[in-house]
Amino acid sequence: MEGVVSINGRDFRYRVVRNSVKHAYIKLKRDLQIEVVVPKKVNGLDVENLILEKKDWIEKKAEEIERSLRIYKDGKVLFKGKEYEVVFERGERDKVLQKGSKFVVQYSDGDPVEILLDWLKERAKKELVREVESWSKKLGIEPNNVRIKEMKTRWGSCTKKWNVSINWQVIVLPKRLRDYVIVHELIHLSELNHSKRFWARLAEVFPDYQELRRELKKYAIMGL
Asked: Could you give phi then psi for residue 45, rounded to 5 degrees?
């Protein structure tokens, strides 16, 4: 059984799959098609009502998938400013290996693209924290806390309490742009707005900061 359901003015295709499960549940595939998995012996289920009960989750998941497509698309992944071919292989456990110009994703079950993205997020958490700490020492600006997290529209942010947040997707940028994002946020700790003093301080580190800003806008998320 297949059909189309409208969620806040946006149409989603859906397909019903019968399986050996106890309870019905919903999945959103990477092509943004909703898959409704229902027990084999259950009849008369109001599929569209079941979907609409999960509409908030579906919209949120659709946003996540659309953002991730900027990083992975057509068998290639963007990582540190370069595109790498991605090879998917069945394996005994989930694992991601970087081999030269390729990423090999071994998966036992589930969505291999999600496994790749989860690996990138964990890699980002480790590497970006180290990069923030390195620049913190160079600039003599030490934040109280550094978080690497999901951000919808920003590369980074900071607070008056001297906390810095960096979007994990910064890991897709070339090193020069990663550095620019990090330095931008660290300087904001002492200069919270985009004052003349802020831009002057940034120019001391990156005299070509205007070119870097233009380059950053070529990437998916809102530029700084």
From this structure: -75, 130
Q: Do 180 and 124 fall within a single domain? A: yes
143 lies in the same domain as 186:
yes
Could you tell me if 133 and 210 lie in one domain?
yes
Of 185, 203, 82, 80, the closest CA to residue 135 belongs to 185
> Domain span at residue 96?
72-116
Instruction: Please write the tens of the pLDDT for every residue from 23-58.
Output: 889 999 878 899 999 888 777 788 899 999 999 999
pTM: 0.71
What's residue 67's pLDDT? 67
For the beta carbon of residue 84, count every other beta carbon within 10 angstroms: 18
Among 76, 81, 155, 79, which residue's Cα sits nearest to residue 123?
79
Which CATH number goes with the domain that contains 197? 3.30.2010.10
Which of 120, 221, 134 has its CA nearest to residue 183?
Answer: 134
